[in-house]
Design goal:
Shape: globular
Number of helices: 20
Distance between the termini: 46 Å
Largest sheet: 10 strands, mixed
Structural class: alpha/beta
Radius of gyration: 23 Å
Helix content: 25-40%
Strand order of the largest sheet: 1-2-3-5-4-10-11-15-16-17
Length: 622
């Protein structure tokens, strides 16, 4: 049970082509267009006990181990759903534990009263909408007008970037605009056709619903439809356009909220794009299609980005899902606590080594030699030791498979009735068989979900599962879609190619930050390749790159002593980069230089990681 709880916790942390990326929106000169809205705009006011930044929870409430409760678990109010979503999304991104640095070295959590405006927006030709939301604080700076725009990290709902974009933007008197970028937690229960409405509560699927799939008799009973996987839109191909549309919506809502100060336009309001993980990938996609010079600056942290150089996510995720459990048995990782739980090598990983041999993927007979072959393969394909080490998190809790299953469906534009390799999503009984989900479970999905199953109340059904290594056949099927003879291979590759990111447009200041030890979105495959490509195409681009030693992907895990001792958080660098970007845009201060930042792990003192200090963070560029 403890492992199951930790597994659910891990999952809640999770999201013109490079020669011509798609740009599917248009903006009238000097004025944003809002004809892309496909719902009414919902406006709400938020005061001290339900503020914009923490929904009234404050730091103590966000640190609470249990989520805010629903007075009526079957029918929570919109305010209760919002508060619980904000609690989950802060905890899913930031390390809020005492001694982790938040509130001491960076960030603060004042009560921020103001108004929220949210709606459903749709790109031309899209099947499904994306949710957009603007937060306008009462102390919005009317003289130095600024909007921070962010897409959710991972596949999270619309509050999925609040710990970074809200945490920095609202405390600097900026409006903050969010988009779920076509992913999100608008899960649809196929049995009851229950869907997420504009206010976050559940209703019957229809308009306006965050996600309204087509219902057919071919969909098995008890299935759950997930927007990222089942929209038919390959949303990642349009993440840049989602960002630009959210920026347009922000200016429109500022016009409505502050009519005496209108009009708000791209020429009189600074728009800064900020993101982490998939949200950072969306930020860089927007930078590459900013043809109208609408954006003032971009800060991207640990971006999932593919520039044509490096490796695309589907390639390295499916490779890791198959080979990394075995590779982690190599002696190189004997010192890694997560790779040696209770000092032992996991038997399931040894079984994976055997499966690799059985399917002709390694030649050796004994486990040690098999691990050596798997390890050598990963190193030859660009994985560093530190990336493999940090990947123990993903291998331990089956994150690689969770990502691969959803992205295979998204890239191939597969519907809920026909996911690749026989996978589907449903509530599961104790034996792993699909069952009907309860009203109480469904009520939590919008707030507790991560946008990629497994998530609370929803599991992955693997129709190919069999034997001592039940997941391996499905994983081999997913990999065959990439480099085998699978019928969906061409469609998959077309979906991946549609996500290519162009370099930022000339003159746009950009700061990219990445942990050198990132095991989920390896730096060598993503940020390093993106920066290299951008510089090769134009050496004078206004692009800075901060590579942080001893930092991995998941700040939220650093409250666990074994990880807090080994890694530094990335959020302090993200906040510092936003400070530098804002000073550059408002005061003309030169951007800090690119840097390899020599951060130092905290280590353990009597089994406890000491408080993070400025010394641990190293010399942050200024």
């Amino acid at each position: 049970m403890r492992n199951l709880v930790l597994f659910i916790f891990v999952l809640t942390m999770l999201g013109a082509c490079a020669t011509s990326p798609r740009d599917r929106i248009a903006v009238a000169a000097g004025k944003p267009m809002t004809d892309f809205l496909v719902s009414p705009t919902l406006a709400t006011t938020h005061a001290a006990d339900d503020d914009l930044l923490t929904a009234g929870l404050g730091l103590a409430g966000l640190r609470a181990l249990a989520p805010p409760v629903f007075a009526n678990p079957e029918k929570p109010t919109a305010a209760e759903v919002r508060r619980r979503a904000i609690w989950n999304n802060w905890r899913g991104i930031a390390d809020l534990a005492p001694g982790g640095g938040f509130g001491d070295l960076y960030g603060s959590l004042p009560s921020v009263p103001g108004r929220e405006f949210q709606a459903l927006a749709k790109l031309p030709g899209a099947n499904q909408p994306h949710r957009v939301l603007t937060q306008i604080p009462d102390d919005f700076d009317r003289k130095a007008r600024c909007v921070v725009v962010a897409a959710s990290s991972g596949s999270r709902g619309v509050y999925g970037a609040i710990a970074l974009a809200g945490g920095w933007g609202l405390t600097h008197h900026c409006a903050v605009a969010y988009t779920d970028k076509g992913t999100g937690t608008g899960y649809v229960d196929i049995d009851t056709r229950s869907a997420v409405q504009l206010d976050g509560t559940r209703g019957v699927a229809g308009e306006p619903a965050e996600f309204a799939p087509t219902f057919t008799s071919a969909i098995p009973a008890h299935n759950v439809a997930i927007k990222h996987a089942h929209s038919g839109d390959n949303p990642e191909a349009d993440w840049g356009s989602h960002i630009l549309q959210a920026a347009q919506f922000a200016l429109h809502t500022l016009d409505q909220a502050l009519p005496s100060e209108a009009p708000f336009t791209f020429s009189n309001t600074r728009v800064i794009v900020l993101g982490v993980s998939n949200g950072a990938g969306a930020a860089l996609r927007a930078a590459g299609i900013d043809h109208e010079h609408q954006l003032a600056g971009v800060v991207a942290v640990s971006p999932s980005v593919y520039s044509g150089d490096g490796r695309p996510l589907y390639d390295y995720v499916t490779e890791a899902a198959i080979f990394q459990p075995c590779a982690l048995l190599h002696a190189t990782f004997d010192h890694v606590a997560l790779a040696r739980p209770k000092g032992a090598k996991p038997a399931t990983w040894a079984q994976r080594c055997k499966s690799l041999h059985d399917y002709g993927l390694v030649a050796a007979i004994d486990t040690t030699a098999q691990a050596g072959e798997a390890y050598s393969r990963m190193r030859e394909n660009g994985w560093t030791d530190t990336a493999i080490e940090a990947g123990a998190i993903s291998s331990s809790f089956d994150l690689w498979r969770a990502v691969a299953v959803t992205y295979a469906s998204a890239y191939t534009r597969s519907g809920v009735e026909m996911m690749p390799c026989g996978y589907r999503f449903a509530a599961l009984d104790a034996s792993g068989v699909a069952r009907a989900s309860s009203v109480v479970e469904q009520a939590t999905w919008s707030a507790d979900g991560t946008g990629i199953p497994p998530s609370p109340g929803i599991g992955i059904i693997d129709s190919m599962a069999n034997g001592a290594d039940p997941s391996v056949l499905g994983l081999l099927c997913l990999r065959a879609m990439w480099d085998g003879e699978h019928a969906l291979k061409r469609r998959l590759h077309a979906g991946v190619e549609a996500t290519l990111a162009a370099p930022p447009r000339a003159g746009l200041p950009v700061i990219v930050i990445h942990g050198a030890d990132d095991g989920l979105i390896p730096e060598a495959f993503t940020s390093a390749a993106y920066v290299r490509t951008a510089k090769q195409q134009s050496a004078d681009r206004d692009l800075r790159y901060w590579r942080v030693a001893n930092a991995q992907h998941f700040d939220a895990f650093l409250g666990l002593p074994v990880l807090g001792a080994r890694y530094v958080p990335l959020m302090p660098y993200a906040y510092a980069a936003m400070d530098a970007m804002f000073a550059h845009l408002t005061q003309g201060t030169p951007l800090p230089a690119s840097a390899d930042i020599a951060a130092l792990p905290r280590g353990l003192n009597a089994g406890v990681a000491p408080a993070l200090s400025a010394k641990n963070l190293g010399a942050i560029p200024k």
